[in-house]
Amino acid sequence: MQTIRVDTPSARYEVYAGSGLLATLAPRIERAGIIFGGRLPRRVFVLTSPEIWALWGETFSQSFAQSPIALFLPSGEKHKTLASVEKLARQMIVAGADRGSLLIAFGGGIVGDVGGFLAAIFMRGIPYVQVPTTFLAQVDSSVGGKTGVNLPEGKNLVGSFHHPLAVFADIGVLGTLSGRELRAGLMESVKAGIIRDRALVRFMEENFEAILARDPKALEKVIAASIRMKAGVVNRDERESGLRMILNFGHTLGHAIEQVTRYKVLLHGEAVGWGMVAALHIAHLRGTITASQADRLENLIHLYGPLPALKLNAAKLVAATGADKKNIGGVRRFVLPVGIGDAGVVEDVSANELLDAAKYMLAQTAPDRAPNRTVERKAR
Amino acid sequence: MQTIRVDTPSARYEVYAGSGLLATLAPRIERAGIIFGGRLPRRVFVLTSPEIWALWGETFSQSFAQSPIALFLPSGEKHKTLASVEKLARQMIVAGADRGSLLIAFGGGIVGDVGGFLAAIFMRGIPYVQVPTTFLAQVDSSVGGKTGVNLPEGKNLVGSFHHPLAVFADIGVLGTLSGRELRAGLMESVKAGIIRDRALVRFMEENFEAILARDPKALEKVIAASIRMKAGVVNRDERESGLRMILNFGHTLGHAIEQVTRYKVLLHGEAVGWGMVAALHIAHLRGTITASQADRLENLIHLYGPLPALKLNAAKLVAATGADKKNIGGVRRFVLPVGIGDAGVVEDVSANELLDAAKYMLAQTAPDRAPNRTVERKAR
User: Fold this and answer.
1) If you measure CA to CA, which chain B residue comes closest to A156?
2) Mutating which of B93, B94, B98, B158 best tests the A interface, going by the most A Cβ atoms within 10 A?
3) Minimal CA–CA distance to B196: which of B7, B344, B12, B18?
């Protein structure tokens, strides 16, 4: 097991990544949950999905003297709404929840986002613990304190910053994840390596077979490195005023793809994968990375592919980036890698550059291109 | 004009109380809104009620170079819901709101609570300003950072702590308030005096005619003293772990009355008025105040009456106190005045004492009792 400390102005907690955590959760929470004086509160709630609970509910509950009260959120982005949050809050009231109750979010990113937000606003805030069950949720959404739900107008448009008491990322749970979900999640680790961790890039290049075969030691290493990268950034910039912006690498066009396809075609990690391909193109043209670095990083992305093919209009994608809520006051901030393992934010990426990048990216998505192929650029 | 500083671990801002603030709002916000670098952001939204906007919209807008975008919340507690918040958030998105937008909550307590919560969760938090238009909102709900909405199961069950950039309490706006609303609001000032400000008790005893006639100087003094009391408490105990609990004086049975009457019969201040009558009875029986102090304080409450008569069952009221979310883990905390101008919290008030108090209070509510009458207790 590896332990990663998250330490921001408003919260301090640990993320634990390793095997066998789920079966020993209760004593671990008691040790982590300093606000309870070493004991679980009278009422513990667990928000989960019916599928996860069917697979892992028994293991989850076995370390609790009294079984947590299970609340269910049906799977799918369409349930990530204020209406769901209201329904869950009402169920908690009926079951006797008070301001001292604990909520455990046990599931993928949607359960984590909804559960965190529910905890943030229930009686103006109760403590919660994250137990993420997908690779993506383990490396990304369970660190940073971002919680929230969607509006019909866009994703994550309402929410809170609310940090968990602790995060337990159990590698064993990933065994029931589909291959596609695992690969999509690994895009976040690819991103982590590109923007902040040269050694992770190399490890993921050299060990892709073990990683994709879910070798526990290899997965633990990738997950811990990815969490450590994000925690390091969040530690220094809790509210996304500057440094934290680099976590959005690949997200400008990634979000545009998700919006244009109405979040129905690609997994988030897959959209970010394509968004990184586009961003690498701009970085190469601007000279913040060399042609061979761009090729190496794009190959790394495809190593954890194949990313689903896209048939989209480049101009529409660029138009969709304008609605991105990450653009403050209309200025278009864009994350560019600088060499391998570093990145910066620029504010002068033009619509034309985005259009070029979108076209380049869409050319790579042609379904006749072989998966896991090698790209090679000409130097500028 | 009086200026009261609110200074908590998570926020620092000023509350301004005086005449003529509304017509000069824009430059005042620019001076207070340090995060904007001295300028209003591109998009300013104002959440208000149709009634308030019809009366005061023109005055409100006149100091803005560009009129704020008005959002409307219909009057009434039944609109204080997550559904309203979602609708308003969607309207903001459609109108181009981003993370740098400013929201002004311009109305009574419900507009303040909903507006503050909307600002708390819109894109995970945007800045907001409170411009309360009722006496109650000016002295109570605009200080302390509590925001939120109701669930069918109870009031304020979901919400956030989110402090405004500044609060502007314009005395002039109180001119259009109904007499009943003014008197109900003044119960909060009576409460402020009883628990924390002996001089305010005396001022309200000696100047009740000027106060009820809405003399601007008298009102400014009462409002500023009440805000100062609350700010002083909140400054020292932001999250209601201890000291802040005393602000709940009169609320145990006050909330019970509101619940049993489904929030339809009494204004909040009126319910708190009756709740204070009940709490004074317990304080007298326990000896934390003398009989003559109890009489004096109960008379002060009736001076700002008449409180509406109640026909309720005492046992039902006591049962309703058990559901109060302020009771942590089933312990019944109760605020008792200690002399005049001080108060403490006890945890051992029994159901029998509450029943006695409820019966005493209900006996005072008989409709044949004259308004503004003088009570007199026998010493124990």
Assistant:
1) B123
2) B158
3) B344
Contacts of B98 in chain A (CB under 8 A): 325, 327-329
Note the pLDDT tens digit of each residue in B87-130.
Answer: 999 999 999 999 999 999 999 999 999 999 999 999 999 999 99
Q: pLDDT at residue A58 above 50?
A: yes
- Tell me the pTM: 0.87
pLDDT the model gives residue A34:
65
Q: Minimal Cα distance from B101: which residue of A? A: A329
Q: Do domains A2-176 and A179-379 have the same CATH topology?
A: no
B244 is catalytic: yes
> Is any Cβ of chain B less than 8 angstroms from the Cβ of A158?
yes
Tokens of B233: 């408490």
Angle between helices A216-236 and A179-196 (to 10 degrees): 50
Whole-number Å distance between alpha carbons of A55 and A80:
22
Of the candidates A85, A275, A296, the residue with the CA atom closest to the CA atom of residue A184: A275
- Is B248 among the catalytic positions? yes
Reply yes or no on whether the pLDDT at A48 is more than 90.
yes
Q: What's the fold here for domain B2-176?
A: Rossmann fold (3.40.50)
Helices (H) and strands (E) in chain A, counts: 14, 11
Query: In angstroms, how far is CA B332 from the centroid of its own chain?
Result: 22
User: Does any CB of chain B come closer than 8 Å to the CB of residue A328?
Assistant: yes
pLDDT of residue B241: 64
The whole-angstrom separation of Cα B217 and Cα A328 is 44
By the CB < 8 Å criterion, does B102 face chain A? no
Instruction: Collapse the DSSP code of A33 into the 3-class scheme (helix H, G, I; strand E, B; otherwise coil) and give the result.
Output: coil
CB contact under 8 A, B329 and A86: no
**B144-196 pLDDT tens trace:** 899 999 999 988 999 999 999 999 999 999 988 899 999 999 999 999 999 99
Active site residue A239: no
Whether the predicted pLDDT of B324 surpasses 50: no
Ranges of each domain in chain A: 2-176, 179-379
* A94 touches B at CB < 8 Å: yes
The verdict on whether B181 is a catalytic residue reads: no
- Mark yes or no for CB contact B151/A90 under 8 Å: yes
Is A379 in CB contact (< 8 Å) with chain B?
no
Phi, psi of A307 (to 5 degrees): -80, 140
Which DSSP string do the residues of A73-132 spell out, in sequence order?
A: --SSGGG-SHHHHHHHHHHHHHTT--TT-EEEEEESHHHHHHHHHHHHHBTT---EEEEE
Q: Given this model, what pLDDT does residue A329 score? A: 36
A171 forms beta bridges with none
Catalytic one among A230, A284, A302, A332? A230
Q: Is the pLDDT of residue A240 over 90?
A: no
Q: Is residue A330 scored above 50 in pLDDT?
A: no
pLDDT at A238: 64
Q: For the domain A179-379, what is the CATH superfamily, name and number?
A: Dehydroquinate synthase-like - alpha domain (1.20.1090.10)
Q: What is the mean pLDDT of chain B?
A: 90
Q: Tell whether A159 lies on the interface with B, counting CB pairs under 8 A.
A: yes
Distance CA B171, CA B296 (A): 28
